[in-house]
């Protein structure tokens, strides 16, 4: 099974779906990751590489860190679009994780739009990123996370992204709190879960 993980910025993938990736890794043999961060220049790119390794250890992977300008992705739209066409030519994923179409951040929305525009016959799940804008929405797909997966997610985030520790929102309470809320909404046995927006799901059953 091949999973394509798309993030506009360093730490987006890990915050949005890190627990689910750890769950899938523990449940499915021979999992392959194609991990793409569009804006990962400088020291934060090194942190992103470290995080990708933590979340995909033991699996076949390709990690791609691009250097598009943070906060300006829509203004480089043609170049970003060209790169998405390159991705489509290299990987045919079984599952794609990307940003939510209703995310308040312009970079996030562009990545979501291009994901749907580029991959027309794939299962796409849109993850959520907590932020000042208060744009969390009402997700409709939940992945319960058993211990210690939700703890590992937080541990890996804090271990990899040392440069973000000074931000008041980047802490254990924020990440566990969101997963606890989604765990309550989904009646997760552990009390913790991650949530996604599944805009279109096609079930092709062979009987």
The quaternary structure here is single chain
Query: Helical content, roughly?
Result: 40-55%
> Can you count the beta strands?
7
Strand composition percent: 15-25%
- Low-pLDDT runs of 5+ residues are none
Lateral strand order in the biggest sheet: 3-2-1-4-5-7-6
Give a description of the structure:
This protein has 207 residues and is an alpha/beta fold. The protein has 6 helices and 7 strands, in the order βαβαβαβαββααβ. It has helices at 12-27, 43-56, 77-90, 106-118, 149-160, 172-185, and strands at residues 2-9, 32-39, 60-65, 95-99, 123-127, 141-144, 193-197. It has a 7-stranded mixed beta sheet with strand order 3-2-1-4-5-7-6, sandwiched between helices. α1 packs parallel to α2 (43-56) and α3 crosses α4 (106-118). It is globular, with a radius of gyration of 16 Å. It starts with a strand and ends in a 10-residue tail after the last strand. The mean pLDDT is 96.
Summarize the entry for a quick read.
With about 210 residues, this protein is an alpha/beta fold.
Keywords:
207 residues, alpha/beta, seven-stranded mixed β-sheet, 6 helices, 7 strands, globular
In terms of topology, how is this protein built?
Blueprint: E1 2-9, H1 12-27, E2 32-39, H2 43-56, E3 60-65, H3 77-90, E4 95-99, H4 106-118, E5 123-127, E6 141-144, H5 149-160, H6 172-185, E7 193-197
Parallel strand pairs: 1-2, 1-4, 2-3, 4-5
Antiparallel strand pairs: 5-7, 6-7
């Amino acid at each position: 099974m091949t999973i394509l993980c798309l993030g506009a910025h360093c730490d987006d993938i890990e915050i949005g779906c890190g627990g689910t990736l750890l769950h899938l890794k523990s449940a499915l043999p021979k999992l392959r990751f194609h991990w793409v961060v569009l804006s990962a220049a400088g020291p934060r790119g090194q942190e992103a590489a470290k995080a990708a390794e933590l979340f995909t250890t033991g699996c076949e992977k390709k990690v791609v860190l691009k250097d598009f300008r943070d906060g300006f992705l829509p203004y480089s739209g043609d170049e970003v679009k060209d790169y998405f066409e390159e991705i489509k030519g290299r990987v045919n994923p079984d599952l794609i994780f990307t940003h939510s179409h209703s995310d308040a951040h312009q970079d996030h929305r562009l990545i979501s739009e291009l994901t749907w525009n580029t991959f027309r016959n794939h299962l796409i799940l849109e993850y959520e990123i907590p932020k000042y804008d208060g744009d969390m929405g009402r997700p409709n797909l939940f992945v319960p996370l058993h211990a210690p997966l939700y703890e590992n997610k937080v541990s890996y985030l804090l271990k990899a992204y040392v440069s973000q520790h000074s931000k008041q929102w980047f802490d254990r309470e924020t990440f566990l709190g969101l997963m606890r809320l989604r765990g309550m909404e989904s009646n997760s046995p552990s009390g913790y879960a991650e949530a996604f927006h599944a805009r279109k799901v096609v079930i092709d059953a062979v009987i």
